[in-house]
Specification:
The protein is α/β, with parallel strands linked by helices and about 300 residues long. The protein is about 20% helix and about 30% strand. The longest helix has 14 residues, at about 220-235. The structure holds flavin-adenine dinucleotide.
């Protein structure tokens, strides 16, 4: 079985700190045919200056990462897929050279290759009152969720971004209010803007009581841990929350996965995008770290 090789076709900086990479190639075709697993996929990077190394296979023919491949795996959101053009887009936050993915994305040129494995994950269930909080790493997921919402959806979304130059139009239902929170001079992961937005938010009491609030949070670990406490305090039912740490200050993704599994807890909202539940890649889902054993 070939690995999901994805070839960089086009690079679009749609804001100064968000770089959209549009991939084509056999890996993308596999995702489209398989059928696609969304919203999240695992991508893995070649060693600097080398060709992409293929993952191994277990005894059942399922892909597994071998050797040091695991340290080169990162989680990203599929921003969109286009069956007609056989393309897949990922939006990368440009956060400097300290990250494997962020350094890679600064240097790419069309024709560069990376690997992708599996996919899946939960999404915010539609309906009720939608409440979303995220920083720019969650912006691809938030944008996609807003695009999928029914036209009569109501809710509020808070998005922390680098600065005002990152603010852009989002396709969304009229009844969902989006509030941008630019950091200005502050560093990513060093602000309390999302936390303060939660603390000062006045939730419609009737909807809290009727368990109609659906909460989604994707951000740095500290925000996520606060969000869970806050959600419990204001009475948002656990089964109506989906709270995931997207990154951890001063920790790379592999270390964060090992340390606290992205601050996930069991028993939160368990809703998959309709049409994708049955097609989940057998061997991978959001907790792939445990599902991709070494030989
Ligand atoms: C389900 C899920 C979906 C995600 N989708 C996306 C997506 O679509 N686009 C996207 O850009 N990110 C997304 N992320 C976040 C992304 O996986 C992490 O930011 C990841 O750490 C980036 O890898 P890296 O190799 O660049 O940095 P790493 O090597 O993992 O980390 C190196 C250093 O960079 C720091 N760092 C990591 N991310 C950031 C950041 N955003 N800003 C500042 N410092 C940072 C770390 O604290 C660490 O010190 C997602 C995460 C999850 C869990």
């Amino acid at each position: 079985m070939p690995a999901n090789e994805m070839i960089v076709e086009k690079i679009v900086d749609y804001t100064p700190h968000m770089r959209r990479v549009i991939f084509s190639g056999p890996g993308v075709a596999d995702y489209l045919a398989d059928p696609p697993c969304v919203p999240n996929i695992k991508i893995y990077f070649p060693r600097p200056g080398q060709l992409l190394d293929q993952p191994g296979e277990d005894e059942r023919g399922r892909w597994i990462f071998t050797g040091d491949q695991r340290s080169r795996v990162r989680t990203y959101t599929v921003r969109w897929m286009n069956e007609a053009s056989s393309q897949l887009a990922i939006d990368f936050v440009r956060h400097g050279d300290e990250g494997l993915a962020s350094a890679w994305v600064e240097r790419i040129v069309p024709g560069d290759v990376l690997g992708a494995l599996g996919g899946g994950g939960r999404v915010l269930k539609p309906g009720g009152y939608a409440l979303m909080f995220g920083d720019e790493t969650a912006l691809p997921a938030i944008s996609d969720t807003l695009e999928q919402m029914p036209a009569d959806q109501v809710g509020q979304v808070f998005i922390e971004v680098h600065n005002e130059a990152e603010i852009h139009e989002l396709a969304k239902p009229e009844g969902v209010r989006v509030q941008w929170l630019p950091r200005g001079q502050a560093a990513a992961g060093a602000t309390r803007q999302l936390i303060e937005a939660m603390e000062t938010l006045e939730l419609p009491a009737e909807q809290v009581a009727a368990e109609e609030i659906n909460l989604w949070v994707g951000a740095e670990s500290q925000v996520v841990r606060f969000a869970r406490q806050w959600a419990a305090k204001v009475g948002i039912a656990k089964s109506n929350r989906l709270i995931i740490g997207y990154w951890h200050l001063e920790m790379n993704e592999v270390a964060y996965g090992k340390d606290s599994d992205h601050d996930r807890v069991h028993g939160e909202m368990d809703f998959e995008r309709p049409g994708h539940e049955a097609h989940r890649h057998e061997h991978t889902h959001e907790h792939e770290h445990e599902h991709t054993h070494e030989h």
